[in-house]
Amino acid sequence: xxxxxxxxxxxxxxxxxxxxxxxxxxxxxxxxxxxxxxxxxxxxxxxxxxxxxxxxxxxxxxxxxxxxxxxxxxxxxxxxxxxxxxxxxxxxxxxxxxxxxxxxxxxxxxxxxxxxxxxxxxxxxxxxxxxxxxxxxxxxxxxxxxxxxxxxxxxxxxxxxxxxxxxxxxxxxxxxxxxxxxxxxxxxxxxxxxxxxxxxxxxxxxxxxxxxxxxxxxxxxxxxxxxxxxxxxxxxxxxxxxxxxxxxxxxxxxxxxxxxxxxxxxxxxxxxxxxxxxxxxxxxxxxxxxxxxxxxxxxxxxxxxxxxxxxxxxxxxxxxxxxxxxxxxxxxxxxxxxxxxxxxxxxxxxxxxxxxxxxxxxxxxxxxxxxxxxxxxxxxxxxxxxxxxxxxxxxxxxxxxxxxxxxxxxxxxxxxxxxxxxxxxxxxxxxxxxxxxxxxxxxxxxxxxxxxxxxxxxxxxxxxxxxxxxxxxxxxxxxxxxxxxxxxxxxxxxxxxxxxxxxxxxxxxxxxxxxxxxxxxxxxxxxxxxxxxxxxxxxxxxxxxxxxxxxxxxxxxxxxxxxxxxxxxxxxxxxxxxxxxxxxxxxxxxxxxxxxxxxxxxxxxxxxxxxxxxxxxxxxxxxxxxxxxxxxxxxxxxxxxxxxxxxxxxxxxxxxxxxxxxxxxxxxxxxxxxxxxxxxxxxxxxxxx
Length: 689
Description:
Blueprint: E1 2-3, E2 19-21, H1 25-31, E3 36-40, E4 45-50, E5 55-61, H2 65-72, H3 81-97, H4 121-125, E6 137-138, E7 145-150, E8 157-167, E9 173-179, E10 184-189, E11 193-197, H5 213-229, H6 233-242, H7 244-257, H8 260-269, H9 273-286, H10 301-310, E12 314-321, E13 327-335, E14 338-347, H11 349-364, H12 371-395, E15 401-405, E16 419-422, E17 425-428, E18 435-438, H13 442-447, E19 463-467, H14 474-486, E20 493-496, E21 511-515, E22 517-519, E23 529-532, E24 535-538, H15 539-545, E25 553-556, H16 577-583, E26 588-592, H17 598-613, H18 618-631, H19 633-646, H20 653-667, H21 677-680, E27 683-687
Parallel strand pairs: 12-15, 15-18, 19-20, 19-21, 21-25, 25-26
Antiparallel strand pairs: 1-5, 2-3, 3-4, 4-5, 6-8, 7-8, 7-11, 8-9, 9-10, 12-13, 13-14, 16-17, 22-23, 23-24, 26-27
Helix pairs in contact: 5-6, 5-8, 9-16, 11-12, 14-17, 14-20, 15-16, 17-18, 19-20
């Protein structure tokens, strides 16, 4: 929750309401790195002050701050005003307590710099100077002062302190500098540095930018705005196609000349621009804002750092397919309280072209209709990408949650199934991270929050469960029976089995489960569709008609709901049904990447719904389900459920027999019924965790 800075003094405040620093490491970690964390006894809350943004983010609250603010508002005053004034007072407290000599990233300037005259040999031998130039003269700049230079190989901005600056007779300007990352002294040409002055810089070193980046990010933001201005989907796509050559050139410049963090940011700025524009505009309306005519899609590297600092356990993997059919990985993570980025080649040159050909061939298949052909193409690709990513993840001590952001045709790959052969043993992605989710872009992930969206209590429901038992087989019958047994005494659960009974207004449901047929259209992305009896819900219809503003979980137990087979060779556009559900308002969507077997879909949906009621995240629970399917331990759990049901003396005989009948249907399956990759790998998490 972000609270914009207000103005004025706090209404109704008292001298006893004092701010103080937080010494709880757990709260400090949750607040984010490089921010000042403080608490107030009454109301009892912990806030994180970001001095760069001038904003306050709530970390934890024991009291109802909205009620606290309303109680203190004077007649005629906005009920939120005391709260905003409290935020303003906390920010000012932080400014007065964050002195420059406490800045953990930029140390105080040293006193042993050399300035005021040309250095002599005696100065060098005595340790007063760092170099000597014959006929040199001092350069008229402040010494010492903060600056940053660019690493020769990586173009990474390096935070420095300039210690000496002189000009040779031929005009070359040489400086001695202290590299703050290695604490070593060296010298270089002054043109390689950007001077920051003698005041402690407001920027964290990770926010320093390479020379090309400010211009490139400006172009990318203008591009996103131009797409936003176009009135319909066809016009937006046409604009991107008309500017494709320019776009590819910008991306290539970013990869070659910018830091890995900046390269990731630029790439994220052009991902799924059309669907993202629909998403952001609908989110703005859901938040009570007027429908915007234009949205800036791109976020900059400072915002990327802020997102990762909010949760140091998160790392982001972006799989980039260049216009030249070369594949690169970009990994973002937090290490030693600093956001870091790693750019690494995966498959380039002729290998890259061969990789692109294999992915396109997979896209033309209905995956797993021919298991042998699918496996021969898919598993080498998952091993290729896994060998590049998994060993890097194993070296990280902090990050445990992985967000995957694919690019172009890599959208069709089940990257949560990546593997790597390390030390002779096969390691899966699930072995090194606790949960995995997909996102169309980091910008979409940033906006995808439901904390501020509610409905009146009298309208609120608990869950909507739609099961097309008429057109599905025995798996749907088991699923329906499981829901009725599991949720018989839960208030606000609506179970629908007829298309005519599906509510027109879905805004009251925080949880949606949908079990029916589904199809990914190979030609037109807006015609990806869910089919419930004779009713067809296309992606275009879902985006336009469904209102999921309060939904935080949607479980799509239908075929091909997490894939878009109409991918364009040149554009990076994705609109699977999970993206359509997200545009309609839902935060987390569990979807399928190919055709799903009925019992695998039913069992997974039931397990995920039970996990949601127990407060488990879908991404972490999916990892557990995959392990149960692969090992066959799901069967043991069903056996335990069968024994417990037989011993349930509180249930009526009729109810107990119904439950036993449903469980017996699962026990009739072989223990390895879901052990094939086509069964255990079909579901993915899309959106929030």
